[in-house]
């Protein structure tokens, strides 16, 4: 029996038509290669693809975008709740609570028909950037900025954070970043959303479960951890002395932004963010963070992917999606505590796609077994004898 200690690695729990993650370093959404989507699609097209199973034509995309922008605004009652949070609230905690509150304002709450679920998914996707931006501004004592209905999701999010339109390279970086983070099969948070709605619960409950699972450093928190590491190292000159001992001592210390539970080859998503990190550095006439991250990559490769280790059955260790998203976000001046909420904005699309699939007829409640290893047949002791 595969136990929880084994993290359910390699266990197939069901079929899905949404996302194909191949350990040899390939990723497909609905059959489309992630490289084509990152190079050519907008995030809105990717969301349509994930939810409806096909790429939109021009008319369908225009209609979908119009539906999304019409839902950007968040009920004043939700903003009032966000206002009451302590200024030092953890952003993911604030987001989790904000989304939970949002569910109570949704006119389709409690209605889990396919049509209502799609309407709720659209509202969630449209409103989550508005909530994240409002959380950030309120935590700094600033008023939320109203969404702009002439901007796409990526551009509008950056606009709502700062109250000014962002540089086109920033907008393109966020758009690509959202595409790359949109889905990844049964990662921990997506699995959590599917477990939740498999009981018949509403997708708002599913997203709240997803947000909880995503908040951990081994999942959505990796970009922030990566940036903390880069700031701690401080300069390209210090990389070697900092990284090498972590991988050569008695016990290897995981390097943030590297390794993956499924990929045994380079994470295809890292390619695009590596490039955006360099481009952003060049825009700012200083590629320091890109240089440091690529220098770490070289050392991790040299010490982890040796013929000896690979021959001994050890997994190859490569930069994952969060490795370069860290320096991209930092270059754009995004606060580090927003890195995981940014991931959540994007992954809401994948969560909703999976929950829509989970609601299909014939799906069962997800209820695995545990192997009991605790004490057995203990004698009952009355309270006064314990
Ligand atoms: C993602 C992650 C949790 C997957 O872990 P996993 O599949 O359970 O792999 P394990 O922890 O069992 O590690 C297997 C081997 O790879 C090594 N390894 C895994 N991640 C590593 C990393 N980030 N840096 C260096 N070595 C790593 C382990 O040291 C171990 O080697 P060993 O057997 O010689 O001790 C892990 O790679 C990690 O913690 N990465 C850093 C956090 C991160 O970036 N998360 C975002 C993922 S998208």
Oligomeric description of these chains:
single chain
First-last Cα distance: 35 Å
| Ligand set | coenzyme A
**Name of the CATH architecture of the largest domain:** Orthogonal Bundle
Average pLDDT, rounded to a whole number, is: 95
Secondary-structure-derived class: mainly alpha
CATH class of the largest domain: Mainly Alpha
Q: β content, as a range?
A: under 5%
Low-confidence stretches: none
Could you please say which CATH topology of the largest domain applies here? Citrate Synthase, domain 1
Helical content class: 55-70%
For the largest beta-sheet, the strand count, sense and barrel status come to: 3 strands, antiparallel
| Number of domain modules | 2
* CATH homologous superfamily grouping of the largest domain: Citrate Synthase, domain 1
Number of helices: 17
What overall form do the CA principal axes indicate?
A: globular
Task: Walk me through this protein's architecture.
By secondary structure, the chain is mainly alpha-helical. The protein has 2 domains: 15-215 and 337-358, Citrate Synthase, domain 1; 222-331, Cytochrome P450-Terp, domain 2 (Cytochrome p450-Terp, domain 2, Orthogonal Bundle), CATH 1.10.230. 56% of the residues lie in helices and 3% in strands. It is built from 17 helices and 3 strands. The chain has a 3-stranded antiparallel beta sheet. Strand 1 (19-22) and strand 2 (26-29) form a beta hairpin. Helix 7 packs across helix 8 (168-181), helix 8 runs antiparallel to helix 13 (268-283) and helix 9 crosses helix 17 (339-358). Coenzyme A (COA) binds next to helix 16.
